[in-house]
Amino acid sequence: MASQSRVCTISFAFVIAGLSVFAGPGSTFAQAPSEAQILDALKPRNTRGLAPATPEEQRKAEDDRRFIEELRNRQKSRSLTPRERDTVAKIAADKPSVDIEIQFDFNSDVVSAQGRESVRALGRVLSGEQLKGTVFFLNGHTDGKGGADYNQGLSERRAEAVKRALIEEFRLPADTLIAVGYGKTRLKNTTDPLAGENRRVQIVNTEQPATAAR
User: Which CATH number, 3.40.50.1820, 3.40.50.2300, 3.10.450.50, 3.30.1330.60, labels domain 2-13+35-42+57-209?
Assistant: First the structure.
């Protein structure tokens, strides 16, 4: 089929403000970020050691930690429930995250040759000394075209494809990469549901080390 030769692009949601390299969550680079920019975006922002956390913050941090550990301890991949996906989104909302353009063949969950270069850039950063041993979310999203169930499955498969590539090439531990699919439920550009920026996989630093007892 002629359409199979087309290439789809999936990008990663990133944290920046104004013209600076790093700031609050939710913005994106105009062009593909360099490895230095990816690292800067994903660096932990937790400076809690400077002041004691409130009891409420402590409870939330502990709830988040237990939830992330539950996802890591699952023996095999399965779709998360809508409630679990909402919990992931809430945790990710104020964490460091980055947008990287990754290409897939049309209607496919196989990372293309071009897309592999972007995955390698990400892999070099995640396997580096500053981020190694940290748990990350890989949150897959699609644009608004097509049915909800199909897009949900496609977003999950593409997030898993990025996870597999990082594991195979950079030997990242599987339980430090949590793949989640959102389908078309969380469009980045709601005014244009078919916009390319909606097709993305968000890399989120949970700021949780993978050193808890297994």
Answer: 3.30.1330.60
